[in-house]
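Hi C.,

You asked whether I'd gotten around to modeling the 369-residue construct. I have! Everything is below, sequence then structure, no commentary in between.
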Amino acid sequence: MFACGALCDADLLRVILGAEAPVPETATLSAYKARWSQGARDFSLVPAPEHQVAGVLLQGLSACQLARLTFFEESRGRTSRRVRLRHAGQDDDVLVFLNKSLDTSPGEVPIQGDMEYNRDLMLLVAKEIMTCMGQIPAEQMISRRSMIQARAAARLAARQSVPADVRCDLSAENVEVLSQNAPHTGFFVTKDYTLRHPQFSDGMSAPVRREVFVATDAAIVLPYDPKRDRVLLVEQFRMGPFGRGDPKPWMLEPVAGRVDVGETPDQTAIRECQEEAGLHLKHLEHIASHYCSPGCSTEYFHCFLGICDLPDMMQGTGGLKTEHEDIRTHVLSYEAAMGLLKTGEADNGPLILSLIWLSRERDRLRASA
């Protein structure tokens, strides 16, 4: 098999193949060139006469290794093809994987940029994809790839340094994981662990079993017009209240959305305001970043106030049909919004936090408007 880009990485191949890969040999594939595929966030091979691509040749793959590699590539929307390759002075019939549909950026991108750009992300993505082999068909993995990438990006973001001046500064490396599995792997993922952790009284705990909902990072923004002193809220059906048995599972919230791969939380906040409410933000004020429910979920919120001009209409609609969003927007005066805290109709954490923060900063924001 001829490989280029990320598949030249020995660590990635070890994850995909489940074992050490055969020793690769340097090879060059003629009549193709490497182009950046925005959809796959990786390089793809594109037929191109009078061009060539440098890569490696993997020989002696077992049937199991080839099946694993095929599953990984098909989960990325790629299909195999046999091509002729000149190697060691002779023509060989080799396997390559090409995108079924190619989404490329204009111009060529140096192939070595692939490993520099997303190596850590690709390793995490590959680990989750390969745990699904034998459980989920490769073609179903294609639609889940964006969530897998977002979960991997959140895991990388979690590695950023956070102060530990008051709390315990022990590393997660001190936790002993005895077993780990994923009882549910779908659009969302749950994991359960059996582990031992250091105790405040010294020594390690007895083995305990813990379950966690593995989610992505999210950006949450409360749009605010300081000149007119009004906010915008979105209303939509929510599974959390419905699953709890709430007789009114439609919820008022700030604008919110998943932080996609390659985005900063700020960029997500700006994009989501455009998609959900048709708003163009002038600038963002960071409120806080925090875990939403650390006892059972990895989800991490980045909360903002978004300065903007709000329309006169009291209600509107928004959301993307491609994401099956059914959203109603509400423009409320500051007093009406704060009244939601008193009546209890504001009953989700990000909205409560954002309104309390706004009450503290309102005078400053209005003075600078």
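If it helps when you're writing up: Residues 173-214 form one domain.

Thanks,
B.
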